[in-house]
Design a protein that fits this description.
heterodimer; A: about 500 residues; mainly alpha; globular; B: mainly alpha; two-stranded antiparallel sheet; 2 strands; elongated; membrane (chain B)
Chain lengths: ~500, ~650
């Protein structure tokens, strides 16, 4: 069942790629059909999901693959990966709906996105490091083509920068994986086995080096300060759906790696480096927010808020490593907040990027200076953008609050230094209010005249994302009941 | 019965919230009916609030991080909830006559706000409180900037939201302290937080409450908030949201007291605000600005009450002030809509033009002044009685605040009592275009508010006052004694008479709200923006520059390698090839010059030898014989030499 969820989009991609005669309209709707089916399957998984015992997996499947190097096709989910699988299918569905009005090679785009969806789902389902790495790298390749093929501005250059930077990061990750493989006895790439064995416990510097390799690899992908500079150009030049997937799903591959690989496999090194991770988190939060505040381009601004929002995740997972003198309950809240933040950021920032795409569709610009008073000609757009902005700044009633509340209370509960990141909440509020003011209110700007309001495809793609953010914000238990047991497991593994 | 009462509480929250969201979404389609819908919902809200005030339900559902979303109606909530609901209803009735355009959005946001207030008043845990607290802030932002085409209004909303959110960070810190200390999330459990955590919790709550209540040093946002529509000023920026800052401190008075310092800080913050913002109010020439400053000052008494654990006095003052100030804001709003001005000088004579509004505003002003037997006279004195018991300097500061309230209220009264000077019409329509009429929906809500403002002194006086104390469980704080009541009443009345008769000095230095906003800009906003710009440049030039540098270094290195490849590696190959060719040349030359020549030489030699060999063959017999003799002779010589060698060796 899990493999069907993962590979269904790949089959779709193959069909779409092979059917050269397929009319564009059919291709667009086929894509929507594939993503909706996959979404339905994930909803089924969610309904059938029962929290596995600590260290266990739900819907696990294992097939011999490369026995000579201790690697197998091993997939499964737990409370960390299931929400991210669901997020992936939701974001891709929203993109498919948004792209119903796409004019540039829609069939190829659909095929590429279906392929990309499989790679993302594969990363979240993988329980083997080789498999993880394979999907991780293929996602980079697919995203490269998305940006280069459907982007605008200096797309080729930005795509190349994205590719080279994240690919280099993935090489660091691979070095770390090989270190883990070599340290394990018997040698294995199997994730549950490596978690159970924690092979580098008591190895001192070696564990630190392996963790450093893994951390650098994940930090590039997340991205955290100072490895984030590939993100703004990639977002600015990517098509709206590309940005939505990049921010909504691909960034989570990095943060997911912290919780799935770095923390449980290298607990001792993680605890030793926790202070550094917390510091990187705090800096990312403040730095991302401040730099976003200074942007004059909507998409660049949203891109930098991603650095800020992912900073909350890094802060929380770092704080979860501050074991001495802190309460396990607080650390659990922090990890639970980190996972909630991944989901929340995916929904909200996905919606924000799709809405930013509307600016480009209508006026060919993302510059604040070109707009103003859009609430007049486009009230629905204004309403959606304002709601998404308030969701992103962590207003209660939206998922962002549930995430940030947990991140902050848990992290500060574990280490007082985390309180240094609190102004991040305020700065994000300031920057989003400024964005609302400059885009939506006041006098019309040079490109505001005749700005068309949201069309059905735009409404039906961003709307559900925001509704989900509200549902999580008001009734978070259905999500937290899945996440919290897994967070508890992670915290106990880190405490070993 | 318990289930019914719980349902009533849940509906009291969900019903206005849901209808509010629907009204916002409905947008332009609703228009006319939006105000009716809102008034009906608010009326239902008042009924439900009264019901739950009597039945005191507790509702709780699991929420986040092990904390419940918990609502509980205790004594404090039972008193405040119906009061706020009543003010909300009356303000919404007024707004039905006052607000034009985009009514769906306006009334939707107002209902959403009402729901948030209900949650704030009944919140039993910190996360619950924080949710409602920030939603109030967001609706306040959206309502201040309701007329979004006016950039100035939107900016005012931003200032309000950001200033209060800055203070709200305190609640996040307090929540973290509650978690870390293991005291649990219930507001009632916070005083039991162990070690240093109780201080963090108390400090955080205090800062958040001072921000919301527009106390010093946060007061300036309230001044900007006056850009918003008048009903918003009446409900959010006096009776409900700003008052919730004071309310929170009343709710957490035991926590403040548990720290040993937070209560004192709160008391002094309130007292100083009452004095300084009282001076600011005295200095204003704009009616709404005067009322806003007086809101800060009056809430100063509530905050002071929380600091000295006078929960009964603080609650009574909060409720009485809500009625009084909502009334005055509605009057100001009615005049603003009708005459297009908020200038005190331009409003002279307005009260006589619409006598009923004038009478109500007069009652409001006299109440605000603290003149007996109207409400604020008694409630303020109850607070001051507790202050006197705590500290004499505190009491004296509060007393100065009381005198100042009489002064600024009298300034309003002067306008109310005045007759229209000649040419006052020229000063109309400064802020907006007046309609020159005040409709029924606008004036009648002022009547019940004026009645409440007048009679609510009973909340602080026996026998009702004693019942209030019982409901609140406040048995320790002192009641005002009659001498003090009569004394402050007489002083206030005297000040009012004096001011109405003689007027007030201009106090220019206080007119700009003590330069607080300028200071905030200079000390916080501008440095942060400069830092942001600097970091953005740093990010482009240094961080990304480093990446670009690394990339171009890699490219340069690659080029160098390529050059090396061209010159050295390929050069070696080319050299080898050249060498090969040269070797081949040499070989060829050697081949031509050496081998071939050698071959030819050998051939030539052979030929010459052949020629030589042919020479003896002459065909003459005697020559052959001679040749044989020579050969034989040579052979004999050779044999002799050989023998010689063999024997000699």
């Amino acid at each position: 069942m899990l493999s069907v969820v993962v590979f269904l989009p790949l089959v779709g991609a193959a069909v779409l790629a092979a059917a050269r005669r397929m009319p564009d309209g059919v291709a667009r709707w086929t894509w929507v059909g594939i993503t909706l089916t996959d979404l339905g399957l994930v909803v089924g998984l969610w309904a059938a999901y029962r929290t596995p015992p600590p260290g266990g997996l739900a819907f696990a499947e294992q097939v011999r693959w490369l026995p000579s190097v201790g690697s197998s096709y091993h997939v499964g989910v737990d409370g960390v990966s299931l929400p991210l699988l669901a997020l992936t299918t939701v974001v891709f569905t929203a993109c498919a709906v948004y792209a119903l009005t796409e004019r540039t090679r829609p069939r190829t785009q659909a095929a590429l996105f279906c392929f990309l969806q499989t790679t993302c789902l594969g990363v979240f389902a993988a329980q083997d490091l080789i498999l993880f790495f394979l999907f991780f790298d293929l996602s980079i390749v697919a995203m490269y083509f998305v940006i280069a093929g459907w982007g605008h501005g200096t797309a080729a250059r930005s795509a190349l920068k994205f590719f080279l930077y994240t690919f280099t990061g993935s090489l660091a990750l691979l070095v770390g994986f090989i270190g883990l493989y070599l340290a394990a006895d018997p040698h294995t790439f199997d994730i549950p086995e490596l978690v159970a064995a924690a092979p580098l416990q008591g190895s001192g510097a070696v564990g630190g080096l392996v963790l450093a390799a893994v951390l650098v690899g994940l930090a590039v992908k997340t991205p955290t300060f100072p490895f984030h500079t590939w993100l703004p150009p990639a977002h600015t030049d990517a098509p709206a759906v590309g940005s939505a997937v990049l921010a909504g799903v691909l960034l989570k591959l990095g943060t997911y790696g912290f919780v799935r690989i770095a923390m449980p496999m290298l607990p001792e090194a993680w605890r030793a480096w926790a202070g550094v991770v917390v510091a990187v988190g705090v800096v990312s939060v403040l730095y991302g927010a401040l730099v976003a505040l200074a942007q004059s381009n909507v998409k660049r601004m949203i891109a930098y808020t991603s650095v800020n929002h992912m900073g909350y995740v890094v802060l929380a997972v770092g704080a979860a490593g501050v074991v001495t003198g802190s309460d396990a309950a607080a650390r659990q809240v922090a990890v639970s907040g980190a996972v909630t933040q991944m989901v929340s950021h995916g929904l909200i920032t996905g919606a924000l990027f799709l809405l930013a795409g509307v600016l480009h569709r209508r006026a060919g610009s993302y510059e604040f200076a070109d707009f103003g008073g859009l609430a007049g000609p486009a009230p629905r757009f204004a309403g959606f953008f304002a709601v998404a902005a308030f969701a992103s700044l962590g207003l209660p009633g939206f998922s962002g609050f549930i995430a940030e509340f947990q991140v902050f209370t848990g992290s500060i509960g574990a280490t007082g230094w985390a309180a240094l990141a609190l102004p991040g909440i305020l700065i994000t509020a300031a920057l989003f209010l400024r964005a609302i003011q400059r885009l939506l209110t006041g006098a019309p700007g040079p490109k505001s005249a005749g700005f068309g309001d949201l069309r059905p495809a735009e409404l039906l793609s961003t709307g559900p994302l925001l509704i989900l953010a509200v549902v999580i914000g008001i009734l978070p238990r259905f999500l937290l009941d899945v996440i919290e047991p897994a967070a508890e497991v992670v915290v106990s593994l880190v405490g070993r | 019965m318990a289930v019914l009462s719980q349902a009533a509480l849940v509906i009291a929250v969900l019903f206005p919230a849901t209808v509010g969201v629907l009204l916002c979404l409905g947008g332009s389609r609703i228009r006319r009916s939006a105000s009716t819908v809102a008034v009906v919902v608010a009326a239902g809200g008042l009924v439900l609030a009264s019901a739950v005030a009597l039945t005191r339900p507790v509702v709780s559902v699991p929420f986040v991080a092990g904390a419940d979303f918990a609502l509980a109606v205790d004594g404090l909530a039972a008193l405040v909830l119906p009061a706020v609901a009543a003010v909300a209803l009356l303000v919404l009735v007024f707004a039905g006559g006052d607000i034009r355009g985009a009514t769906g959005r306006f009334f939707g946001l107002m209902l959403l706000f009402s729901a948030a207030v209900t949650v704030t008043v009944t919140a039993a845990t910190l996360p619950t409180l924080l949710v409602a607290w920030e939603v109030m802030g967001a609706t306040s932002y959206a309502l201040i900037g309701f007329r979004w085409r006016r950039s100035h209004d939107v900016a005012a909303g931003e200032t309000a939201f950001l200033t209060t959110r800055l203070a709200d960070l305190g609640l996040y810190a307090a929540a973290a302290a509650a978690l870390a200390g293991g005291a649990g999330w219930a507001l009632a459990d916070l005083p039991a937080a162990p070690g240093g955590w109780v201080h963090v919790a108390a400090g955080g709550v205090l800062v958040a409450a001072l921000g919301k209540a527009a106390q010093l040093p946060f007061s300036f946002w309230l001044s900007r908030a006056m850009q918003g529509p008048s009903p918003v000023s009446a409900l959010l920026h006096s009776a409900a949201m700003v008052a919730m800052g004071g309310f929170l401190l009343l709710r957490t008075a035991p926590l403040l007291a548990a720290t040993g310092w937070a209560a004192t800080v709160a008391a002094w913050a309130g007292a100083v605000t009452a004095v300084l913002l009282g001076l600011v109010a005295v200095a204003q020439r704009d009616l709404k600005q005067l009322l806003a400053a007086s809101t800060s000052a009056q809430l100063g008494f509530v905050v002071l009450a929380a600091g000295v654990s006078a929960v009964a006095g603080g609650t009574a003052h909060l409720i009485a002030h809500a009625a009084t100030k909502a009334l005055l804001f509605l009057a100001a709003g009615a005049w603003l809509s009708a005459l297009g001005t908020r200038e005190l000088a331009a409003l002279r004579g307005a009260a006589r033009r619409w006598p009923l509004v004038g009478v109500c505003a007069g009652v409001g002003a006299v109440t605000l002044a603290g003149v007996p037997p109207l409400s604020l006279w008694a409630t303020k004195d109850e607070v001051l009685a507790a202050a006197r018991e705590a500290s004499v300097p505190l009491y004296l500061t509060g007393l100065v605040g009381a005198v100042l309230s009489a002064a600024y209220a009298a300034k309003v009264l002067r306008v109310v009592l005045a007759s229209a000077p000649v040419g006052v019409q020229d000063r109309y329509d400064q802020q907006e275009r007046g309609t020159r009429r005040i409709g029924e929906a606008e004036w009648w809500p002022m009547v019940p508010l004026a009645a409440a403002a007048a009679v609510l002194s009973v909340l602080a006086l026996p026998p009702v006052g004693s019942a209030v104390r019982r409901v609140l469980g406040d048995t320790t704080s002192p009641s005002p004694d009659w001498t003090s009541l009569l004394l402050t009443g007489a002083v206030s009345a005297a000040v009012v008479v004096l001011v109405v008769w003689r007027g007030l000095p201009a106090l220019r230095w206080a007119a700009g709200w003590l330069g607080l906003e300028r200071a905030a800009h200079r000390l916080v906003v501008r440095p942060v923006l400069a830092l942001a710009d600097g970091l953005a440049r740093f990010d482009d030039r240094v961080v990304d520059g480093g990446v670009r540098g690394a990339a171009s270094m890699a490219r340069a290195a690659a080029q160098r390698v390529a050059r090396f490849d061209d010159r050295a590696v390929d050069g070696a190959v080319r050299g080898a090839a050249r060498g090969g060719v040269r070797l081949a040349d040499v070989t060829a030359r050697v081949d031509e010059a050496g081998i071939d020549r050698a071959v030819q030489t050998i051939a030539r030699g052979a030929r010459r030898l052949g020629t030589l060999a042919r020479r003896p063959q002459t065909g003459q017999l005697h020559q052959y014989y001679a040749q044989v003799v020579i050969v034989l002779g040579a052979a004999a010589a050779l044999a002799a030499v050989s023998v010689l060698f063999m024997t000699g060796g």
